[in-house]
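[09:14] KT: can someone run the structure on this one? pasting the chain below
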Amino acid sequence: MGREAGISRLFGLGGIELGELFGLGEIVTGAVRWGKVKLFNWLFGANWWAELFDIIEDADTAKNIGVSPSAITSIVARYLEKTCEVSLAVGEEIGSESIMEMLSEGLSSAMETNFNASIQTILNVKRGSLPPDLSIALQIGQRLDRVEPLYAMSQLMPIGNLNYTILEALLFGADQRYINAIESALAVYDQAIAEKNQALHSHIAIIAQLLNQLLTDLVLDCARFIEALNTIVTSIADEHLARLNQLEDNVESAKALYDAGLLSDEEYQTKIDECYYQLVSSEAVYDKYIADVMNRISDYVNKLDSEKDNIITLIQNWLYSLEAIYNAYINGVINAISSVSLDSELKSKALDLYDRLKAIRAYGYSYS
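[09:31] RB: done, structure tokens below
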């Protein structure tokens, strides 16, 4: 006891071990652990560490995912075994840190798209509630009329369990497909409508100018016609007025001769009768001329009325013919658009896929 106490007093400082003072315990522990690791690597080599990656790389696959459900459970078990194996050499804490934490950190991006993604896909199909990635459903909808139903289902099933959002994406893509199918025809339709309106507007402007010119010519023609008639009526009136004056002079002359006794009663009556019959004849001729003038006026008015109707009919037929040509072309475009049956076809296929999705969700889904 005295010897041990003396050694303790010699190599100890107030009860503090020199090993603790200089960290010799940690050095010894570390050296032992290092030796175990060197021995472990010498015994198992680099292949043991490479097997950590082979476990994932060589895992079984399924039709829809990179790692099958059975392979996932196998990977978890093998990694647990590997952790226990290396823990024999480096201890439990370092063993779990060196493998599990290293993999979760160093391989997180790679495992995100295969191992972790496979788990997420499997659970998402059955119980997923996060907002799904609907880009695939949208793309399927845009070519829904050309894609096989089984292929479409293989793409839609892993998206998630929110069937109604998948249906909406399908219908939105289908609507884009339908619009793309008829947008060229719609552009032609819009162009035809614009051309029709422009053509009618241009022709109406031309007709307005034509009518203005016709009205001007008509006014001038009426003025010339009235002037000509006025000349004729004036000439007739002047001529017959002169004859009336002459007859009046003849009557007065005969009266003067009769009063002077130069004419007998019979001669006087004869001259008066001659003047009377000449007056009646002149009046008949005057009436005939006046009737002829009135007939000319009536014929002119009737001609104007007839020409007016002919002009209106001509203009209307012209515009109707022009519009009919464009309407026939536009109706052809409308018929072409109406004949596109994609709308009902795409909706029917989208609803069929929706019903399949609901059925598969209800009765299960196999990954093998």
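[09:33] KT: thanks! The chain has two domains: 1-125, 182-344.
[09:34] RB: yep, looked fine to me
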